[in-house]
Amino acid sequence: MKTIRNMSRREFINVAFALGAGLTLPFSKVGDANATSSQNYKTILKTGEKIAVIGMGTSRTFDASDNTGLLLRLEQVMQTFFDMGGEMIDSSPMYGTSQKVIGQLLPGLKANKENLFAATKVWIEGKQEGIDQMEQSQQLWGIKNFDLMQIHNMVDWENHYETLNQMKADGKIRYIGITTSHGRFHKKLEDILSKHDFDFVQLSYNIANRSVESPLLSIALEKGISVIANRPYQRGDLFRKVKGKALPAWTEEFDCNSWGQYFLKYVVSHPAITCAIPATTKVKHMKDNMLAGRGRLPTAKQRIQMLKYFESL
Prior knowledge:
alpha/beta
């Protein structure tokens, strides 16, 4: 059977939508002998590189440089993330001291941190100001290069787009992206993605907020742009809706054992979604997040069933 690595972009789109909007083709870097104990992977469409479907966000949660107790807990959260196969960590200068905290904690972690896929953003007006901010982010993280640099909320995107393309050509970053977490900017983002070449786009997507499915996710598939889903729990609103509700028995069919896994598996089973980046300060929640990336993912039919059940609550 032809894998995504060997498919043309057009073939991938045709396969995805012929079988329904929920199709996903998970991969394991360590083979399928024990699929439930290893992370599922999606393909970065521009290169064929594979990445774990569950990453880690740092908005709000990692703004903690003066809180010793929280720092110790976040170190355990990061170690758990890497131990369970995590790769992408996403941050931004917008997130307070989160980048500084990442840089503080990375050196003290044990094995598995070499799999880090470092993603941050430029969030400032001005070409030189953007260059300076990205250099500062690199110093705060304490890394040689970022894997992914994104233009945060499309701020001064024309200037930064030119800079990022040059940085990529010079080998200073591997991928370039653009982000939004605001629905009111979707039309602008559609126009940008339709006319310009990006490797990644980051946007909000979850079972209760699916407005990006058309046309943004369709545009991403058409142009081979990998998608990072932020706010997969709608900042906790999804859990408040299902509080006290039992999972339906049929979730066992796709190895789902918690509401957190239910919500994450729904997100990453969409064919256009490459990676989801939930954020947490608790080890038990990190473990649950990472388990969502293991085992079977919902089929197109199961995604419809999941949505109908959630909307009935």
